[in-house]
Amino acid sequence: MRDILSDLVAEQQFLDQSLQRIPIKIWDMVTPSKPWTVRDTIAHLADFEELAADTIVGGDKLKRWQTAPNLEPLRNEAIKKGRAMRPQDVIEWWRGGRAKVVEPLSHMDAGSRIEWIDGDMSARTFATYRLMETWAHGLDIYATLGLEVEDTTRIRHVCWLGWKTLPHAFKEAGEDYEPIRIEVIGPGYAKWVYGPPETDQVIKGSASDWARVAVRRLSPQKTRLNASGEHAEKALQVAKAFV
Q: What is the DSSP letter of 188?
């Protein structure tokens, strides 16, 4: 757990530090994830950290999310709350929530099971989800701020989660799934491979491209990802590493 939690904290701190340098008026600028503003985005992250923290300790907040026919009204509750707060208070809300997630996770085995909105997962995967959300929403904020941010090797976790969630993404899209292998090149020419070696369904290319496709921040048509096989091609269209 140490490596994923270390990278999770680093990703959160990088976004946090970026927020400290922006004028207050930018907090209400709309991000590429319309209609959310920078303020809305951090409020959403804060709300989900609180939900995650409550879930880890066996709280009952998760039941509302698991039984809700539509998650948007629940998300909007956090947005409304954030819009009534000062920017620094929204940041403090987020900081408090994420601390209450990392601390108990640091005492858990990587394979321990944690319940979540759409089923349970290992503690390691749970931490990876938190990193993915921070990174994906961070992309929206950096774009709004006009910041050029270089990817780090932390992106490998998002790439892995994008592959790991493919069966669910195919099911959600009403498509049949076959095992797919992902072969990507990351920062420093690091090579990361996920999936069985024997399959002929393969996606190759940039880790940056694959991670952004997996979190729906980049259209596959705007990447240089190469998909071999019908299911690999479909994966580029349906990949979705979040609930």
A: G
Q: Judging by beta carbons within 10 Å of its beta carbon (0-12, 13-18, 19+), is residue 149 exposed, middle or buried? A: middle
List the domains of the chain with CATH numbers. 2-145 (1.20.120.450), 155-238 (3.30.1050.10)
Q: Tell me, what amino acid is at 53? A: A
Sequence-ordered strand ranges (E) for the chain: 113-116, 119-122, 181-185, 191-194, 202-206, 226-228
Residues with Cβ within 8 Å of 39's Cβ and at least 6 positions away in sequence, in order, are 27, 28, 82, 83, 87, 90
CA-wise closest residue to 194 among 172, 214, 224, 175: 214
- Of 124, 154, 206, the residue nearest 15 (C-alpha): 154
Taking the chain (243 residues) in runs of 10, the rounded mean pLDDT of each run is 96 95 91 94 97 94 92 93 96 96 95 92 96 97 92 97 96 95 96 96 98 96 96 96 82
Other CB atoms within 10 Å distance of the CB of residue 14 = 16
Distance CA 131, CA 76 (A): 22
Residue corresponding to tokens 């270390």 = 6
Task: Please state the pTM of the whole predicted model.
Answer: 0.94
Report residue 210 as tokens. Answer: 């694959």
- As to burial, measured by CB atoms within 10 angstroms (0-12 exposed, 13-18 middle, 19+ buried), residue 114 is buried
Helix (H, G, I), strand (E, B), or coil: what is residue 20? coil
